[in-house]
Write a structure and sequence with these properties.
Helix content: over 70%
Largest sheet: none
Structural class: mainly alpha
Order of helices and strands: HH
Mean pLDDT: 87
Number of strands: 0
Number of helices: 2
Length: 161
């Protein structure tokens, strides 16, 4: 009789542990899903930024090409030529800076893609763990209910004696 009570107590404890594990996994999955959503939004933002930087780089490159063309065709005075050269240099510097920003944004987008893939693998594993914990919980709960019914029958039989 005492062994049966200990067994029931043990099964209850296992069921409680499995339930707590399932709750913990639920919280982890939710947190990872939130992080995934945040990362996806960050990727979209960076992709938009990359697009804007690429467009701006094209504009700057066009301006640079125009400035260089003006420089080649210019018959203006030395003063105007100096102004144009400064503008060309400035545009070239801006173009170089935009190229650097574009490369950095592309690296960051790639890093976020890799991190997103990692989070997806973690979420998949956590979901599998949760399913396993839920299955184990159901099995333990069924055992508990069976033993409980058996105990009740035994107690009733003992009461009848």
């Amino acid at each position: 009789m005492e062994k049966l009570r200990e067994k029931i107590s043990s099964l209850r404890e296992e069921a409680n542990v499995a339930h707590e594990r399932a709750d913990s996994l639920d919280a982890t999955v939710k947190q990872l899903m939130d992080e995934r959503t945040e990362r996806e939004q960050e990727i979209i933002s960076l992709q938009n930024r990359i697009t804007r930087l690429e467009e701006e780089a094209e504009v700057r490159e066009t301006q640079l090409d125009e400035a260089k063309e003006i420089q080649k065709n210019s018959v203006a005075s030395l003063n105007e030529s100096d102004v144009i050269m400064k503008k060309v240099d400035t545009l070239q510097e801006k173009y170089d800076e935009l190229e650097i920003q574009l490369r950095e944004s592309q690296k960051e987008a790639h890093r976020l893609d890799l991190e997103n893939e990692k989070l997806n693998r973690i979420i998949t594993q956590d979901e599998k763990d949760r399913e396993d914990a839920d299955k184990r919980y159901e099995e333990l709960n069924e055992k508990y209910m069976s033993i409980k019914a058996e105990l009740e029958e035994t107690m009733k039989a003992l009461d009848d004696i």
